[in-house]
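We include this case.
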Amino acid sequence: MEAAHNNIARTMTSDNRLSLNKTGPLLLILSGPSGVGKDAVFNRMKQLELPYHYAITATTRPIRPTEQDGIDYHFFTKDEFKRKIAEKQLLEWAKVYDNYYGVPKEEVEPALKRGQDVIVKVDVQGAATLKRLFPKAIAIFLMYPSEEELAQRLKHRGSESQKDLDRRLKTVEAEMKSLPFFDYVVVNYKDKLDETVAQIESIIKTQKGKTKQKRGKA
């Protein structure tokens, strides 16, 4: 998949390639454009105490006023992040808009090994990388109801300059070309967060049902 971001280097090490047993735990990849509400959906699922392991990703971007380290993200300095890259502690990582983003191995691998379903939220390029690592993972693309609403959501965050907002909206156009790569698309409507979560729960139950059927035929 061609990278949609400017100044982006999406990387996974060759010895990171893993697989999920057809009767094993489920890895759900929650993705979509910036501003579509990935964090809100992810956090709502945690609030509802749905029985999954919620993988916390890492970043070097500044922490926002409403965020908490170790809950919303693992916030690292660039030197700390580079050290984790050198020590191969990340499943995948990228440099996007001068900040680093990545998925720590410790947030995913131990939970899968103990048989627990895992949910991880990443950007579109990160989803593609994780899908290569875990071919049997289920990738969900969170869709915005309209371009106008997405622009309003990004502006409402108030954490980026107009230049950054314009750049992100341009990136969305390229990310939309990745839709066929995903297993499911879920529209995240404003003020209907629980409906979005319910759709994701339905997808998980469907996939778990398919796993049980395969196990019965084995």
Notes: The CA atoms of residues 43 and 72 lie 8 Å apart. The helical segments are 38-47, 78-86, 109-113, 124-133, 147-157, 162-175, 193-217. Residues 23-217 form a domain with the Rossmann fold fold (CATH 3.40.50.300).
